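User: Need the bound-state model for flavin-adenine dinucleotide:
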Amino acid sequence: MSVGVWVLGDQLWTGQAALQACDRHTPVLMIESIAHAQERPFHLQKIVLVWSAMRHFAEELRSQGWQVDYAIEESFEAPLIQWIRARQITELRIMQPVDRPFQQMLQAWELPCKVSIVPSNRYIWQDDEFVNWAKSRKRLIMEDFYREGRRRFNILMVGDQPKGGKWNFDRDNRKPPKGKLTLPEALWFEPDKITQEVIDWIKNDDRFAKSQEYWSIEPFRWGVTRKQALQVLEFFIETRLSDFGPYQDAMVTGEQTMWHAMLSPYLNIGLLHPLEVVEAAATAYETNSHWDLSSVEGFVRQVMGWREYMHGVYVYADDDYRDRNWFGHDRPLPGFFWTGETEMNCLHQIISQVRETGYAHHIQRLMVLNNFALISGISPQEIESWFHAAFVDAYDWVMQTNVIGMGQYADGGLLASKPYAASANYINNMSNYCRNCTYSPKVRTGDRACPFNFFYWNFLDRHRVRLKDQGRISLILRSLERFSDEELAAVRQEAIDWQE
Ligand SMILES: Cc1cc2nc3c(=O)[nH]c(=O)nc-3n(C[C@H](O)[C@H](O)[C@H](O)COP(=O)(O)OP(=O)(O)OC[C@H]3O[C@@H](n4cnc5c(N)ncnc54)[C@H](O)[C@@H]3O)c2cc1C
Ligand code: SF4
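Assistant: Bound-state model below.
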């Protein structure tokens, strides 16, 4: 029996289950598929990040004595079959791919050897552990899952009680960006020779023409090795974690990262493991007990709560989850999502930042980009497709749950407790974007009316029946009752007439 391992581009960690199941004499294959990178107009920096990280990981494995073969080909299937034959592999081991479309593609191939899928160890919770937890509940609630995780993995606990006597400090973490804030620097890297080779190739290859039209490839400043990812983690803990909480939801013009961790690109390709990230944060708190617990707890909740929950729901949900459209929204995606050319300053600022970096923080994604799509009635599948192309950390598992589920509420509330819909009031309070905008956040209809206002009220009006049982949002519906007939008619008309 001759075993071989295929390491996928989001499994770049020597502790990953398929490598752990073999010794260092086992041949390893890695493949860059050009067709896979062209499936949608991916951000150029995402392609560079993944391919450069793969090439660095191949070097790391070789330096540890593994025999690594590296293919740059059109597809995955042909070089894989060729390698199996050339290396006379009789059993191919692959760590369970996380994304469903990839799993389905793999199942459809007829490979000339036995294929063993090794259960994944890249999340804190194993797939079957989450499914068992979910089946034991009447309703999926992230907070219950998060508390169970804190207990099970003993993070920020004193015996069986949460540190500080409370599980959740979310209410302390919603400060608007008022006054003069001193924001921390982010840790970025210069491209090395390997990264520069990938950049030079992709920016000059016509096969990536669509991506070249939309996204900047340089300056490319992401880390591409585990060593760099660990530096980002350490830097975050030393310079940002203690203040992560209070301004978690704030947005400031020209400030791309605020106090956010910038860890998702590395977590999502396996350069970091989520458990080591939360353990590092909890350990730092032990030695710095003067730090604000709400900041540390807020961060742990993101990784051990939200991230694990999103992955678990993706595993648990039915195959048709991606097609859900509870509100029946069908407006096409406006062209400015690709160019950033819009008079709406909040969208202009954030989309321009995404074009430059492939990154935006959570509230920019949820309460501006996604909120606009939700209230204006854009098709959930169109906005999901845009997010998937635009972000350096986008993968199918994190897209379906965050965009179809949390963002668009297209699953009718399987995942989130309410639709994340808001008017300009929220954006005006949590950012300084409105100060330099053509529109006024205070105006609902007429020339200077902010589109977030008429779309918001129109959204509530259109979906009154569906929303009346949706918890907190049902209370806001009562405000609609106070609209005069003329005002409601004007809101409806603005929403119909709007175009950019
Ligand atoms: C509409 C929408 C689209 C999103 N698209 C992506 C995406 O493509 N890829 C992605 O990894 N995350 C996505 N998220 C989740 C979250 O916004 C990003 O993980 C986060 O902004 C990454 O930046 P950061 O590392 O600085 O995060 P921080 O704000 O510092 O948070 C720390 C970590 O928590 C994790 N996390 C927090 N919330 C989530 C969540 N809801 N889902 C998954 N992980 C979470 C991330 O790993 C993140 O690195 C999306 C959220 C929304 C609402
Ligand atoms: S006024 Fe409206 S469009 Fe302009 S920045 Fe504020 S929320 Fe965005």
